[in-house]
Amino acid sequence: MGFSDFNLAGVFVAALLAFVFGFVWHRALEKPWMTASGYGGRPALKPGPLAIVFLAELMMAGVLAGIIGHIGPVTIGNALITGILGWAGFVLTAMVVDHSYEARSRRLTYLNAAHWLGVLIIMSVTIGQFG
Description:
The structure is a single chain. By secondary structure, the chain is mainly α. It contains 5 helices and no strands. The protein has helices at 8-28, 30-37, 47-71, 76-101, 106-130.
């Protein structure tokens, strides 16, 4: 499996589930997230930014599927390990660097890092299930 033959349905479902997870995550943890990020009020839900989030997660799921396929057989276990390593090696490290330079609170870093870990676990398991 590679970039040319990954399961498009699996990528779409992975992105959709991750999008729903992110929406629920930010609504459930709205007050601590807003406090940690410095927002004064509830951010408005606008279709434009939500569409961008979905497209970004669709791209992430597609790239993750390609990476999983290039590493070895597409199984749930291999996909999960790849997703967690990708989160730890790329997402978490980039976020920690950005939050350090931006003097963001550790609480925001923890909340955002946990969100992206959830996203990558959901995407990886979904991609692994679709094969």
